[in-house]
Amino acid sequence: MTEQLDPGVAARLKRDADGLVAAIVQDDVSLQVLMLGWMDDEAVRRTLTTGRVTFWSRSRQEYWRKGDTSGHTQHVRSVALDCDGDALLVRVEQVGAACHTGTRSCFEAGGDLGAVVGSAP
Q1: CA neighbours closer than 13 Å in the CB half-sphere of residue 25
Q2: Collapsing DSSP states into helix, strand and coil, what is residue 66?
Q3: 61-114 confidence digits (pLDDT tens)
Q4: φ, ψ dihedrals at 76, nearest 5°
Q5: Quick one: CA dihedral 38, 42, 43, 44, positive or negative?
Q6: Strand ranges for 1-121 from DSSP E
Q7: What are phi and psi of 7, to 5 degrees?
Q8: How far is CA 105 from CA 12, 17, 33, 53, 70, in A?
């Protein structure tokens, strides 16, 4: 029998039209946001049960585990579900760059958009 995602966890996920949930990846020590990836139920199951982060590639239509080709691995420290069930926060020990461009974070590569900084009343 093929392993499946725990039904209790699966019931809590709110997936998009493609059956995916956003997974925000954060460094467990520095708390830096490293990247955003997408997971279906199988990718969530693999992430929860193997200690390594697995994503679903929307462009290649296949599973990929961070670091299998680059050596820049992500080792799971915790996985949390947001209050709406439509996003995961995956805290990791990141080995090497998280971004395919070679930067630590995908948000370094994308760059700041120059938003006006607000202040609380």
Answers
A1: 28
A2: coil
A3: 999 998 898 999 999 999 999 999 999 999 999 999 999 899 999 999 888 999
A4: -65, 130
A5: positive
A6: 21-27, 33-39, 54-57, 62-65, 74-81, 87-94
A7: -55, -35
A8: 29, 27, 7, 16, 15
Tokens describing residue 118: 């607000």
Distance of alpha carbon 32 from alpha carbon 15, whole angstroms = 25
Distance of CA 26 to the CA centre of its chain: 8
The pTM is what?
0.91
Task: For residue 43, count CB atoms less than 10 angstroms from its CB and return exposed for 0-12, middle for 13-18, buried for 19 or more.
Answer: buried
